[in-house]
Amino acid sequence: MEERTGTISNVILARIGEIALKGLNRGRFEHQLISNVKIALRDIGTFSIFQNQSRLWIEDIADIPSLLADDFTMTKVLDALTKVFGLVSVSPAVRFPGGMKEIINHSLSFVRDEMNREGHKTFKVDAKRGNKQFPLRSPEICTELGKEILDAIPELSVDVHNPDFVLFVEVRDDIYIYSKIIYGHRGLPVGTSGKGMLMLSGGIDSPVAGYMMASRGMKLNAVYFHAHPYTSDRAKEKVIRLAQILREYAGEIGLYVVNFTDVQLELFRNSPQDMLTVTMRRIMIRIAQSIAVKCDCKALITGDSLGQVASQTLEALVLTDEVSTIPVFRPLIGQDKEYTTQIARRIGTYETSILPFEDCCTVFVAKHPQTRPKKNHIIFAEKNLDIEQLVQKGLESVEHIRI
Ligand code: ATP
Ligand code: MG
After folding, report:
1. Is there an atom of ligand 1 within 6 Å of 204 CB?
2. Is residue 256 within 6 Å of ligand 1 at its C-beta?
3. pLDDT of amino acid 115
């Protein structure tokens, strides 16, 4: 669809990433992306969204007072947009019809604004002429506009190599000017790669694992194993908060809280201590997978990283995966903690993750867990357990929370 024309208005230019390469699927990807953008902005206001080649234009709805003219709203919209997977970057811009005279006039007030806000002293102009009917070519627009700005604002000077700001001018059917490019999280639009069940603890790793799979287009549900009263309600609140932060990237999440206390007590009593880590993981996986299948999730997602703790040795992971009939995705498997922590900080989960509430896995933990568990160890460890009944018990305790 073509962009609307009219007088000067505030718009946002959003650049579409990788999905531009997807050939025949492109339509479906773009459709999902636009729908995700609408949902991300829903609580802020209603906007028009147009697509043109590998760009989206977000605009005010015609004939009602402009939301984007308000700085506070603009900031919220930009923040929400940068979290939509599939967008590479966004730029707040002004749009107007006309020719060189209008470009000069509007650019002067845009540049003055920019200087007042940011204290900029040097600039350059970067012009692109998409509309070949426009009488000046791109380099001519740059030269003429640059000269006009220098004449009108003597405090400014040109620096083509390292300017404080770049004034971008795009000449299409209308003219667009902007200076900021704010980078987003790239990836693929959530909803284009099916649905996964994230095993979400209150730690640093699992929210990052969820974020990473969502960035590949996966819609998320999440399951949290809660061992009340051994783990406090505040531990549960923390997981809910983490799911809310993830929601800003991944859209709505169905969170399933399993009350795991009875199951854990049973394991604690009837299974060897050194194998607790593995028996517990296996029960968790069985329960998680049961819920996953019911809500159409095609894979489990965990925050495991190879060798990080006893439950994450290759031997423990092999025995854990053995009980799953659907794939277990572990996007952090080869990643070190420092890098995961950096991502957690960047996406905003870190501060919540480090709140000091216990996890069910740390309450019922063996002093010396078996780090190289073998098949015969697990057969022995589960010999006195009624696995079916424990899984059933877990499933009966599930509480569903929409995030
Ligand atoms: P995290 O930081 O994600 O808690 P971790 O480094 O503490 O991970 P573990 O506690 O061994 O490692 O957990 C490994 C993975 O198992 C977690 O990333 C998570 O996916 C899952 N998991 C652990 N505890 C729970 C829980 N209480 N509820 C749901 N999933 C859990
Ligand atoms: Mg943990």
Report:
1. yes
2. no
3. 87
Q: Are residues 282 and 136 in the same domain?
A: no
Residue 339 lies in a domain: yes
* Number of domains into which the chain is organized: 2
pLDDT tens digits along 131-158: 888 999 999 999 999 999 999 999 999 9
Q: Which of 127, 150, 183 is the last residue of a domain?
A: 183
- Lowest mean pLDDT segment, chosen from 13-22, 96-105, 215-224, 304-313: 13-22
CB count within 10 Å of CB 140 equals 14
- Residue 82 beta carbon below 6 angstroms from any ligand 1 atom: no
Report yes or no on whether pTM surpasses 0.85. Answer: yes
Residue 1 counted as domain residue: no
Among all bound ligands, the one having the nearest atom to the CA of 200 is: 1
Same domain, 268 and 325: yes
For ligand 1, atom 30, name the residue with the nearest CA: 199
- b/e for 292-320, b at 16 or more Cβ within 10 A? beeeebebbbbbbbeebebbbbebbbebb
Dihedral of CA 256/350/339/337: which sign? negative
At 371-400, the pLDDT tens digits run 888 888 888 888 888 999 999 999 999 999
Q: Answer yes or no: do 177 and 200 share one domain.
A: no
DSSP state of 66: -
User: Does residue 156 form part of some domain?
Assistant: yes
Q: How many CA atoms lie within 13 A of 136 on its CB side?
A: 18
Longest dimension (CA), the chain: 87
Atom from ligand 1 closest to the CA of residue 227: 27
Ligand nearest the Cα atom of residue 208: 1
> Is residue 240, in this structure, part of any structural domain at all?
yes
Q: Is the CB of 311 under 6 A from ligand 1?
A: yes
CATH of the domain at 369: 3.40.50.620
Here the CATH number for the domain that contains residue 84 is 3.30.2130.30
Range of the domain at 218: 195-402
Q: Lowest-confidence range among 160-174, 332-346, 373-387?
A: 373-387
Angle (CA) 309-313-316 rounded to 5° is: 110
Cβ–ligand 1 contact at 361 (below 6 Å): yes
Average pLDDT, the chain: 90
